[in-house]
Write a structure and sequence with these properties.
The chain is built from six helices and eleven strands. It has helices spanning 5-12, 26-37, 100-106, 126-132, 138-159, 172-179; strands spanning 19-20, 24-25, 41-45, 49-53, 65-70, 74-75, 80-85, 90-97, 118-125, 163-167, 186-197. The strands form three sheets. Strands 1, 5, 7, 8, 9, 10 and 11 form a seven-stranded antiparallel β-sheet that branches. It has a two-stranded parallel ribbon with strand order 2-6. It has a two-stranded antiparallel ribbon with strand order 3-4. The protein is globular.
Amino acid sequence: MEIGEFSQVLRARRTWRNFARTPVPLAPFATLLQLTWGVQHVAMVKGQGTVVLKTSPSGGARHPIEAYVLAPRIDGLRPRAYHYDPVRHVLVDLDRDVSPALVERLLGHQDYYRGAAAIVVMTAVIARSMWKYPRSRAYRTVLADAGHLGQTFCLTATALGLAPFCTMAFQDAAVERLLRIDGVCECAMYVVGVGARAPGHAARPGRISPKRG
C-alpha cells in the first residue's frame, strides 16, 4: 500500500556525506527549523498547565530539547551560532563566529561534514523532564525525544530536497563551550545537519569520498 508522497520521502531518506558548495537558501532552512522544533499548538493539561505541541512526540509533553544552529553556509544568515526560539520562530544571534573548519573540528574531524550548510546541536534541559519524572529513568525520555526530532529533521529535509545527516560523533566539551552551556543542567545530546545536494551523488549520498589534501 502506498501513501502518496510520504512513502517516497521515507524511501528517499539517506544520510548524506557529500554536499554542493552552494549555500542553502534561508526560506527552506527556516521551514525545516519550524517544522522540526517549532511550536505548532498550545494546549492545557490538568495538573500541568500550558503545554506546547510539536510535530514530534515528547515524554510527558515536557520538550526538554533546545536547538542551536551553527550556520556557515545559509544564504541570508551571517556565519554565526544561533539559538532557535521555537515560540517566536526566530534565531537569536549568540555572537559566536562559525566556519566550515570549525564544524569539521566539532564533529570529531569528520572532514566530509566540512561541506555542510548548517548543523543543529540538540541540547537537553534536564530539569524539564525531571519535573514530571523525578527519577534517573527520565533520561530515557530525553534520549527518545532527541531521536524523534532527528528523524523528523531528516525526513523534512528530504522532502525539501536538501541533504540531511545526523551524528553523535562530536566533541561535547568544545560544543558546550561554544554555546555557553554548562554540560550539567543543559548538555549537548545529538547533532543533525543539512547541506545542498551534491550533483552526481544522489545514488550514493553517503559514500565517503577520498580524504582531501
